[in-house]
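Researcher: Here's my situation. A collaborator sent me these components and asked whether they could plausibly form a single complex. I don't have experimental data yet, so a predicted model of the whole assembly would be a useful starting point for our discussion.
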Amino acid sequence: MDSNLLKQLNRAKKSRIAAIVVSDLDAGTQGLFLEGDEIAQPEIAREAKVRLRSGKSGIAQVEGREMFFNAHVPSPRLVIIGAVHISQALAPIANMAGFETIVIDPRTAFATPERFPDISLYGDWPEGVLKAQPLDAYTALAAVTHDPKIDDLPLISALQNQCFYVGALGSRKTHAKRCDRLLAAGITKAQLDLIHAPIGLDIAAANPAEIAIAVMAEIIEAFRKRGNSDGAKA
Amino acid sequence: MSMTTSNTNKSPLEFAEEWLDEGRKLALATVVETWGSAPRPTGSQLVIDGEGNFEGSVSGGCVEGAVVAEAFDVIESGKPGMLEFGVADETAWEVGLSCGGRIRIYVEPVEAGNG
């Protein structure tokens, strides 16, 4: 590996940009591509795209040559706005599924370590927390407080930072009002359409734990199908 | 769990960059293929310097010794090499994988670029 390639790769990883190193194992040559880069060779482009999405590294034969694709994909995160009952189930499920998860709620009666054992919990307003830990394309955001004072700002921030998943709890009526507020705040109609609301896959979830599973399934779907125009949003 | 990366959690590639800046000679070992119950997934990496210091892992510790030995050759020759370990392999008696899996490891030099 060339030191310039190594430095570029480390820089991409630090900035949480997905990258793939393609090595020709026969010739000993190597190339680095960042997510979104144009790759001239179509077979390599196809293989790189699939592996960047799945995050799985491996060997493929390209024109009779043995090529190794090493995918470096940022670890997915989940930011939950609201230390509510759903979050008590969603946070541990998300951690188990490999999502680094934090819960933010300024209402300190909700955000207690007793209610959220072993979870990264912030009893602060989202604004400050998200300034210190900005949202990005490998982060999902689920806003579940029902309270516009708490939910709206992180929703706007998630849309602006192109989070791969943005979900908001609330009935269709609540969501319609939310859309009016977000439009007034400068969010476009196209961005609004990216919000998953009502939140979670429609599995007729009947209690907070079931809703958490519906939300997690929706997040996983969005993550695994990201960059795929057919399946980014149902 | 914090969302910021801590220094104690440096990746093998970060060590590689640091060591390269210190002027050390390096090789990078990468798991390129696995069969069965391999201890570390494809893509796992180990960086080795000319003195035998290493960071990262390509197995649960079963084959690192042999990989370090190969790394010395790679650093010396400047040419990449491929290693294969598994129960079916003769070398398994020496450094094989206790889990019964098989792995292929690509060992390449890490060198200052041309420009």
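Model: Some features of this prediction you could bring to your collaborator: Strands of chain A lie at 19-24, 29-34, 58-62, 65-72, 77-81, 100-104, 120-122, 139-143, 165-168, 195-196. Residues 229-234 of chain A have pLDDT under 50 and may be disordered.
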